[in-house]
Design goal:
This protein has 26 helices and twelve strands. It is of the alpha+beta class. The chain has a five-stranded antiparallel sheet with strand order 1-2-11-4-7, with no helix packed on it. β8 and β9 form a beta hairpin. The chain starts with 7 loop residues before the first helix and ends in a 15-residue tail after the last helix. About 50% of the residues are buried. Residues about 1-5, about 315-325, about 490-500 and about 835-840 have low confidence and may be disordered. Keywords: Membrane, Transmembrane, Transmembrane helix.
Length: about 850
C-alpha cells in the first residue's frame, strides 16, 4: 500500500527535522556543565538508538525521565538532560524516516494510532496557543533575554515550561509511524516505558529513604523526592510520576500468568507502593485507588466483551463455563479484614514483630484446602475444638522453653509455623489414620502458630505483654472456624484467559499474600510513625490554606486580557512575588558581571519568616569532606547582614547533622574578605550501600537583605578545593537553589488554576478539551477496546486527581509524560474487527 506520506515531501520534511534536532542537541551538549564530551557521546548514542530502534525507542525513552535529572550537579534548570534525550532520539528516528521510504504499513483497519482531521486541527490550535503564551511570558519578563542559568523570575523560565508539549508533539509522528509499521510497538513501548519510569523513580526513593531517614522510619517529617530535582522548591513531581505509572504496573500484575514476569511485576509494584507511601502525599493516596478502580472496571468490560463471542460459539455450553469476572474469594476477604482488626490491636503490644508474626500466619487461613470443608458444620467445629486443645497444650510447653533457649520466642514461633506449613504441603502423604484427623491437626498447628505470636510479644516485651497479646490473638485464632464455614470458590470458577486456559491457582495465593503485605505495610506506617497520621489529621486545615492560596492566585488576574490569555508561561512565581505583600517575597538569586569583568552571585533573603526550613539557599554538591572544613570568600553588602554557611548530608531537602556557622558582613557596599571554620566533618557519608550525598549551601539569614558574593572557597584538612566554579566565572554552573519548607510562592497548587493564571481561559479550555476528549475515547469511544485503554485511562485520571492539589504542569519532565499520554489517548483506537484481550500480555 502506497501512502502520500511516503513521497519526497515527507522525506524532505523528515530530513529537515532530523537536521534541526541534531544541531540543537549538539548545541546543548556543547554547553553541558558536567562534561561536553560525555554529552556529545550521549547525543550520538540517543540518535543511534532512534535510528536503529525507530519503532520502539521514541516511546521507550520516556522510561528514562525519572533518572535523568542532574540539575543539583549541573546547575541547569532551563535546559536539562531530557532535552538532550528527546532531541537526539528525534534526530535519529527522523533521519531513519528520511533515509528510506515508509516501511510497509499494516492495513488501515489495524492501525492503532491515527489523528483525524479535527484532531490535527486541535493539536495545531494547542501548539499555537502555547506559542502565544510563550510570547506573553517573554514580554512579561521584559523581553527575550537568553541565559543558560536563569531562575524562576526570568525570561527563560517561559521557555522551560513550553518544552513538554512541544517535545510530545515532536515525537507524536514517530509514535504513529512506528505503530503503523508494527501495531504491537505501541503496546511494548508504552508499557515498557511506564514500567521503567516506575522502577527508576521507586529505586531512587528506596535509596533516599535508606540513606537519609531510614527505610522504616515513618515518624520523621521527611517526604521522599527521588531524583526529581524540581521538588527543590516543593511540588508534586514524584506524586505525578507515580500516578501516571503505577496503574500500568498494577493492572499488568493482575493479568500476568507466567511465573518470572509475575515475580518481576510483583517486585515492581512493591517498590512503587513503597515510594507512594513514603511520599506521604494525600493526593497520591487518593489518586492510586480511585484510578485503579477505573482501570479495573475498563479491564472487566474488555474481558466480558472478549468472552461473548466464545460463549456464542459454544451453543451447548452453560454460562458458568465462561465465567464473567473473578470469583469472590471469601476466605481471603476474611483474612484481610481479620488481619486489619487484630493487627491494629496487636501493634502497640508487640510492635513490628507481633504484626509480622500475625501476617505470616494469615496465608494458612486463606489457602485452606477444599477437603477441610467436608462434613457437616458441627463436624468441622469439633475438629477445630480438638485441634485448639492440642495447640493450647503446645503453647503451655513453649513459653518456658522460650525463656530458656537463646532467641527462644522467635525459634518456637518459627517451629510452629514450619509445622503448620509442613502439614499443609505434605498432607497427601499422611497415613490414612492421620488423614482422618487432618482438620484437627491443621487447626492445632494454626492455634500453636497464632499463639506463638503472643510468645514473641512476651519474649520481646515481658510476660505482661504476653497476657495483653493473648486477647487479640484469641480473636485471630477464631478466624479458622469462621473460614471453615465459608464456601470456597469452586476450582471450575477460576478465571479463564483469552487463550481458553484457566488462570494458575498460585496467582490467587500470591496476590492474596501481596494484599496482606500491603495492608501490613500501611498499618505499620500508620501505627509505627506519627507523620502520616498527622498528615491525615491536618488535611482539613491544609485544605483551607490551599483555598486561601487559590483565592490569592485568582487575584493575580487583574485585567480581561489576563483572564482570557493569562500572564504568560512561567510567570506565576514572578507575578506572585510582585502582586502580594512584602511577606510573600522569597529569596532570589542572579548571576551578574560588573564593569570590571568580575562575576558574582547576587543573593537575597526572603521577607517572610526565616526559620531553618524557610531559608532560600544556593547550594552545590561536594565530594566527601574529611577533617576540619573551612570556608573563605569575598562579598559586599549595602547594610549589615548575616549569612548562613552549611555543609550537610543532604539529598535535596531536609538536612540534618550539618556543620553550620554564621558569616557576619558589614555594610557599606565595599568588597570584604571573610574566613570561618565550619567544624569537623565526621560520619557524614553514610553506609557504603546507601551513601549520603553532601551539599554546601549559603543563604541570607537577614530578612530582605541583599549580598553580592564574588568568591567562595571550601577546603578540608587535605587542602582540597571542594567547590567548582567558586568564582562564578561560569555563571551558575554547578550551583543550585532550594527552599526546604516554604513552597507556596512557586506553585499555584492546582493544575487548572496554574493553567488559568499562565494561559488564561483559552489555555484552560484547551487543556480541558485535551483531557475530556482523551478520557472519553478511552472509556466510551473508539479506544475503549484497546489493551492499553484501562491503564492509560487510570493513569490520566490519577494524574488529574493529584493535580487537584498541585500544579504538576510546572515540572517539565512530568508534564512531558502527561502530554505524551494525553496525545496518545487522543489518537488511540482499537483496530476494527479485533476483540480486546481478556487477559494480559504485551
Amino acid at each position: 500500500m502506497t501512502s502520500a506520506s511516503s513521497g519526497p515531501l515527507s522525506r524532505g520534511i523528515s530530513a529537515l527535522m532530523a537536521f534541526i534536532c541534531f544541531a540543537a542537541a549538539l548545541a546543548l551538549a556543547g554547553h553541558y556543565p558536567l562534561g561536553r564530551v560525555a554529552a556529545v557521546l550521549g547525543v550520538l548514542l540517543g540518535a543511534g538508538l532512534g535510528w536503529r530502534f525507530w519503532s520502539l525507542w521514541p516511546l521507550l525513552c520516556l522510561g528514562l525521565l525519572p533518572l535523568i535529572g542532574f540539575a543539583p550537579w549541573s546547575g541547569w534548570i532551563t535546559f536539562e538532560e531530557m532535552d538532550l534525550l528527546v532531541l537526539a532520539t528525534a534526530a535519529g528516528a527522523y533521519a531513519r524516516a528520511a533515509q528510506r521510504a515508509e516501511p510497509p504499513r499494516v492495513p488501515v483497519w489495524r492501525r492503532v494510532l491515527r489523528a483525524s482531521g479535527s484532531g490535527k486541527l486541535f493539536m495545531l490550535i494547542l501548539a499555537l496557543a502555547l506559542l502565544l503564551a510563550l510570547w506573553r511570558g517573554l514580554q512579561d519578563a521584559g523581553g527575550w533575554q537568553f541565559g543558560w542559568y536563569q531562575g524562576y523570575h526570568e525570561a527563560m523560565n517561559s521557555v522551560r515550561l513550553a518544552k513538554p508539549l512541544l517535545w510530545a508533539l515532536l515525537l507524536l509522528p514517530l509514535w504513529i509511524r512506528g505503530s503503523d509499521a508494527e501495531p504491537q510497538a505501541l503496546n511494548h513501548g508504552l508499557r515498557g516505558a511506564m514500567w521503567a519510569a516506575l522502577a527508576g523513580a521507586s529505586l531512587a526513593a528506596v535509596w533516599e529513604r535508606v540513606a537519609f531517614p531510614g527505610f522504616i522510619n515513618f515518624s520523621s517529617d521527611y517526604r521522599t523526592t527521588g531524583l526529581f530535582w524540581e521538588m527543590h522548591i516543593g511540588g508534586a513531581a514524584l506524586d505525578g510520576c507515580l500516578a501516571l505509572t503505577l496503574p500500568f504496573a498494577l493492572l499488568a500484575l493482575l493479568d500476568e500468568r507466567r511465573p518470572r514476569p509475575f515475580a518481576a511485576l510483583l517486585l515492581l509494584n512493591a517498590l512503587g507502593v513503597y515510594a507512594a507511601i513514603t511520599s506521604f502525599s494525600r493526593g497520591v493516596f487518593l489518586a492510586v485507588p480511585v484510578s485503579l478502580a477505573l482501570g479495573l472496571a475498563l479491564r472487566a468490560w474488555q474481558q466480558r466483551a472478549a468472552r461473548r463471542p466464545a460463549a456464542a460459539l459454544l451453543k451447548t455450553t452453560t454460562a458458568a463455563a465462561v465465567p464473567d469476572g473473578v470469583p469472590l474469594n471469601l476466605p481471603l476477604l476474611l483474612s484481610l479484614a481479620g488481619f486489619a482488626i487484630f493487627a491494629v490491636q496487636l501493634f502497640p503490644i508487640g510492635g513490628y514483630r507481633g504484626m509480622l508474626g500475625l501476617l505470616l500466619c494469615m496465608p494458612l487461613l486463606f489457602s485452606l484446602p477444599a477437603d477441610l470443608r467436608q462434613g457437616t458444620p458441627a463436624q468441622r467445629l469439633i475438629a477445630f475444638a480438638l485441634g485448639a486443645l492440642g495447640g493450647l497444650a503446645l503453647l503451655a510447653l513453649s513459653w518456658p522453653l522460650a525463656l530458656w533457649l537463646p532467641k527462644g520466642g522467635y525459634l518456637l514461633f518459627s517451629l510452629a509455623l514450619a509445622v503448620a506449613w509442613a502439614l499443609r504441603l505434605q498432607r497427601q502423604r499422611l497415613g490414612e489414620a492421620l488423614q482422618a484427623f487432618a482438620g484437627a491437626l491443621e487447626a492445632m498447628a494454626w492455634c500453636w502458630a497464632v499463639g506463638g505470636v503472643a510468645i514473641v510479644c512476651g519474649y520481646w516485651a515481658g510476660p505482661l505483654m504476653l497476657a495483653k497479646a493473648a486477647w487479640p490473638l484469641l480473636g485471630a485464632a477464631l478466624l479458622w472456624p469462621l473460614a471453615l464455614l465459608l464456601p470456597a470458590p469452586p476450582a471450575s470458577r477460576r478465571p479463564v484467559s483469552d487463550d481458553g486456559h484457566q488462570q494458575p491457582a498460585w496467582r490467587r495465593q500470591v496476590l492474596g499474600l501481596a494484599a496482606l503485605v500491603l495492608m501490613g505495610g500501611l498499618l505499620g506506617v500508620m501505627a509505627g510513625g506519627d507523620y502520616l497520621g498527622s498528615r491525615v489529621a491536618s488535611a482539613s486545615v491544609d485544605l483551607e490554606g490551599r483555598k486561601s492560596h487559590w483565592r490569592d492566585g485568582l487575584g493575580m488576574l487583574d485585567s480581561r486580557e489576563d483572564w482570557l490569555l493569562g500572564k504568560g508561561l512561567g510567570r506565576f512565581t514572578a507575578t506572585h512575588f510582585f502582586s502580594g505583600p512584602p511577606t510573600w517575597h522569597t529569596g532570589d538569586y542572579r548571576f551578574k558581571q560588573d564593569d570590571s569583568g568580575r562575576h558574582f552571585l547576587a543573593l537575597s533573603g526572603g521577607k517572610h519568616m526565616l526559620g531553618w526550613g524557610e531559608l532560600f539557599r544556593v547550594s552545590q554538591r561536594i565530594d566527601e569532606a574529611h577533617g576540619l572544613v573551612s570556608l573563605s570568600g569575598r562579598a559586599r553588602a549595602a547594610a549589615d547582614l548575616q549569612l548562613s554557611a552549611e555543609v550537610c548530608p543532604k539529598h535535596l531537602l531536609y538536612a540534618a547533622g550539618c556543620l553550620v556557622k554564621p558569616v557576619k558582613l558589614k555594610g557599606g557596599g565595599q568588597w570584604q574578605d571573610f574566613k570561618i571554620e565550619l567544624g569537623r566533618a565526621q560520619g557524614l557519608r553514610g553506609d557504603w550501600y546507601a551513601p549520603r550525598l553532601q551539599m554546601f549551601s549559603i543563604s541570607v539569614d537577614t530578612p530582605g537583605a541583599e549580598v553580592d558574593i564574588a568568591e567562595l572557597s571550601l577546603k578540608d584538612d587535605s587542602g582540597r578545593q571542594l567547590l567548582a566554579n567558586g568564582d562564578f566565572a561560569e555563571q551558575g554552573a554547578h550551583w543550585f537553589s532550594s527552599s526546604d519548607r516554604y513552597h507556596l510562592p512557586w506553585h499555584a497548587k492546582n493544575m487548572a488554576l496554574h493553567q488559568l493564571i499562565e494561559q488564561g481561559l483559552l489555555g484552560l479550555l484547551l487543556l480541558g478539551l485535551l483531557s475530556v476528549v482523551g478520557m472519553a475515547r478511552l472509556t466510551l469511544g473508539a479506544a475503549r477496546a484497546h489493551p492499553l485503554a484501562p491503564a492509560l485511562a487510570a493513569a490520566l485520571l490519577g494524574f488529574h486527581l493529584v493535580g487537584l492539589f498541585d500544579s504538576l504542569l510546572d515540572v517539565p519532565r512530568v508534564a512531558f509524560m502527561f502530554y505524551a499520554a494525553s496525545l496518545l489517548a487522543l489518537t488511540l483506537r482499537a483496530p476494527a474487527g479485533v476483540e480486546p484481550p481478556a487477559g494480559r500480555r504485551l
